[in-house]
């Protein structure tokens, strides 16, 4: 008598409410990393996300896992904004402008935790997200340069560092009130990127490598 082979267990998909909780945690962490830095208490992140502490730890066993997820999320969404810019068939510099403003809205300054010595910058998920984002941003800038609209002495590191700095509120009690000026100041910066350049820049163009820890 033959016995039936045991059925393979089906991988259970996370429930919709569990996915929403995870998304809320990542969104709250991204905002709080921007406002207070990567050492903000996880209890505070849970409170802003509207979930319990246990829910945070169930999704992210430690701070490093949460920081990595936030960074990957920001990179993925920045890459999507670059893809949308590349899909546009119109003015190349206008597409670059829309990408820059979209990147600021994604809080790219949340990538700052990468400089922390306790952060695993070589994690496979992070490397994959980083390489995709870097490639797409370089394509957006390359298209604007090929069209003769973007000054040639600007590197991708120059662009992303300024976007990160301008999308991060300055220190101070009323720092969040500066958020309403972010896109105004970004446009001032973008106008300075247009070719032909009115002046030469000191030093050399900043690259992705210059943004990484030594």
From TrEMBL:
Residues in the DNA-binding region are 41-60
Q: Does the keyword Transcription regulation apply?
A: yes
State the UniProt keywords alphabetically: DNA-binding, Transcription, Transcription regulation
Domain of life, source organism: Bacteria
Give all residue intervals belonging to the HTH tetR-type domain.
19-78
Return the SUPFAM superfamilies for the record: Homeodomain-like (SSF46689), Tetracyclin repressor-like, C-terminal domain (SSF48498)
Pfam families xref list: TetR_C_43, TetR_N
In Swiss-Prot or TrEMBL terms, this protein is called: TetR/AcrR family transcriptional regulator
Species this protein is from: Streptomyces cinereospinus
């Amino acid at each position: 008598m033959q016995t039936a082979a045991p059925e393979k267990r089906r991988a259970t998909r996370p429930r919709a409410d569990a996915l929403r909780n995870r998304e809320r945690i990542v969104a709250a962490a991204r905002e709080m990393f921007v406002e207070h830095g990567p050492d903000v208490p996880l209890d505070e992140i849970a409170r802003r996300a509207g979930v319990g502490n246990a829910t945070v730890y169930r999704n992210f066993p430690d701070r490093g896992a949460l920081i990595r997820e936030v960074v990957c999320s920001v990179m993925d969404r920045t890459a999507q904004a670059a893809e949308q810019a590349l899909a546009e068939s119109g003015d190349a510099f206008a597409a670059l402008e829309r990408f820059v403003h979209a990147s600021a809205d994604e809080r790219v300054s949340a990538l700052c935790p990468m400089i922390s010595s306790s952060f695993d910058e070589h994690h496979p998920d992070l490397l994959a997200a980083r390489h995709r984002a870097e490639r797409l941003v370089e394509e957006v800038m390359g298209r604007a340069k090929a069209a003769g609209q973007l000054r040639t002495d600007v590197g991708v590191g120059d662009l992303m560092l300024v976007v990160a700095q301008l999308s991060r509120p300055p220190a101070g009690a009323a720092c969040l009130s500066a958020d309403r000026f972010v896109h105004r100041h970004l446009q001032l910066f973008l106008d300075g990127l247009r070719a032909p350049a009115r002046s030469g820049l000191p030093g050399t163009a900043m690259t992705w490598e210059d943004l990484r820890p030594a």
